[in-house]
Amino acid sequence: MEISDLFRIDCGDIYLQEFSKADAIHIHRISNEPEIAHYLPDWKSTLEQRLDWVTHYEMPANKAFLQSAAKTGDIENHFLKMGVFLKGKDEFIGWCCTGIKEELPEPNREIMYAISGEHQGKGYATKASLGLIHYLFTQTTVEILNAVALIDNASSMKVIGKCGFTYQVQVTIDQEKYHHYRLCKSEYEGSAER
Question: Looking at the predicted structure, is the pLDDT value of residue 194 above 50?
């Protein structure tokens, strides 16, 4: 498959693009940065593991998601994992994903993101998240989105707030305390009209 055939969401000076095999090395590098590994320990892997996951699980899962979205808009429990790229350079700087967060009460579809340390603080996580939120609320049947952030992750909470999510409650997942947020499609549509 050609890179030009991959699903893409334009987000201004960045774009989201479904994972490809070539992204594995970048995902591996970023997921092993100390701050990313601290906040997203499940993403840490060896390069061999990451290449296997991208090739055999994440790319096929993305195709299933996109087929369901194109057919009926009902994405069921499918996951979509997209790289965040700097426009012009086509540089992979992080990821923005959506999937089911089983630890949360239903409807429990979440969005999550990570941006490499050298590109943090430039608004890319917010732009990527807003791009994915817009896609989910306008091109699929999703009505509610969730986000979680470890209680010491101030920068993530800032991104979540800028995206319009509302704080719900503190939750414990795998013995860690998180803040849980929600965003309803009706609230998003109302804020977009202003």
Answer: no
